[in-house]
Amino acid sequence: MKQQLSTTTERPVESASRLPAWDVPPANIREEHDAYILELEMPGVNKSGIEVTVENNELTLVGHRSDLETKGEVVYQESRRCDYRRSFEIDPSIDTQKIVAKMEQGVLRLTLPKAESVKPRKITVGD
After folding, report:
1. Whose CA, among 20, 62, 104, 124, lies 20 to 30 Å from 9?
2. Is 87 contained in some domain?
3. Under the phi-then-psi rule, with left for phi > 0, alpha for psi from -120 to 50, and beta for the rest, what region is 97?
4. Per the domain annotation, does 73 fall within a domain?
5. Which residues contact 23 (CB under 8 A, 6 or more apart)?
6. Per residue in 68-89, pLDDT tens?
7. Domain count, the chain
8. Which of 17-21, 60-64, 109-113 comes out lowest in average pLDDT?
9. Is residue 9 part of a domain?
């Protein structure tokens, strides 16, 4: 079976401080009857900070983190304050005109509908 979504190889851009300018969010992909569901974890990103684009069979997702105000002096910090970016090569069997995206509790969920031509269909037998 041909893979409908594949991750493109990306490397973070180095910033002046030598830290990556963005982070690659973890993703889960599952197939349903008439669509693929793509979920990406982007903590710190809200609905207004999401960019979803499709160009030349490449789906690109960018999540801009909102700045959190911290009170006091940071003594130790493991989380990075950079944005998220991830791209996927998508198969032409996905109907890019009908992609739907939702952001809820730090998880971006995209529904990637299958094109009508690749959906299974039942054929009735006539007389």
Report:
1. 104
2. yes
3. alpha
4. no
5. 12, 80, 82, 83, 84, 85
6. 777 888 888 877 778 999 999 9
7. 1
8. 17-21
9. no
